[in-house]
Design a protein that fits this description.
The chain folds into 2 domains: 1-89, Rna Polymerase Sigma Factor, Chain: A (Orthogonal Bundle); 98-188, Winged helix-like DNA-binding domain superfamily/Winged helix DNA-binding domain (Arc Repressor Mutant, subunit A, Orthogonal Bundle), CATH 1.10.10. Helices cover 68% and strands 0% of the residues. It is built from 8 helices and no strands. The longest helix has 27 residues, at 57-83. It starts with 8 loop residues before the first helix and ends in a 10-residue tail after the last helix.
Length: 188
């Protein structure tokens, strides 16, 4: 295991993503909000120029998540107050997954993380920047110092390897669902 101080942003993403999602899932009823705040936390970490100088990446990351959560809740409260309507919480259905669904999601996500960790470092970074952070091939190439065409090749190989790994360790339906970004093109 790497010392936290020497971990890349990619390693931190893979290592703590499940913990971040779990932390947020306990506090937010919306899966979309959990996903949005998780992604925003890692976007913010990715912007840190001197990441290697952060003493405790886990604590730093969780502080970002807590701040994002607080901001999100403040925004939600403003929206409720500004709407001028009373909300009857008892009539609102919770989109939160059942415990069984949450377990399955966690297992599938762990499998996907395992597949991503098996990729070469450049393929890992390209895949995460493009598919998880939503960067275009051009933006990913700029961040990594490589051409957009090289980014495209790295991502294609990475997606194919993730699908192969998931197929070896799960059924086909799960692999298609867990690696859904295979068919998406974020080149623009």
């Amino acid at each position: 295991m790497h010392n936290d101080r020497t971990q890349s942003v990619t390693e931190v993403f893979l290592r703590y993503n499940k913990d971040i999602r779990s932390f947020l899932r306990q506090r937010l009823p919306s899966v979309e909000d959990v996903e949005d705040l998780t992604q925003e936390a890692f976007v913010r970490v990715n912007r840190i120029k001197n990441w290697q100088q952060v003493d405790n990446p886990r604590n730093y990351l969780f502080q970002i998540v807590k701040n994002l959560f607080r901001d999100h809740m403040r925004k939600q409260q403003r929206n409720i107050v500004c709407s001028g309507r009373d909300l009857d919480i008892s009539k609102t259905e919770s989109p939160a997954p059942t415990p069984e669904e949450a377990l399955q999601i966690d297992q599938e996500f762990s499998g996907l993380c395992a597949a991503i960790t098996r990729l070469p470092p450049k393929a890992q970074r390209a895949l995460i920047l493009n598919k998880f952070f939503g960067h275009t091939y051009e933006e990913t190439g700029r961040v990594m110092g490589i051409s957009p065409r090289t980014v495209e090749k790295l991502i294609a190989k990475g997606v194919a390897e993730c699908q192969r790994h998931m197929l070896r360790h799960a059924n086909r339906h799960t692999a298609d669902r867990v690696v859904p970004f295979a068919a998406k093109d974020r080149s623009r």
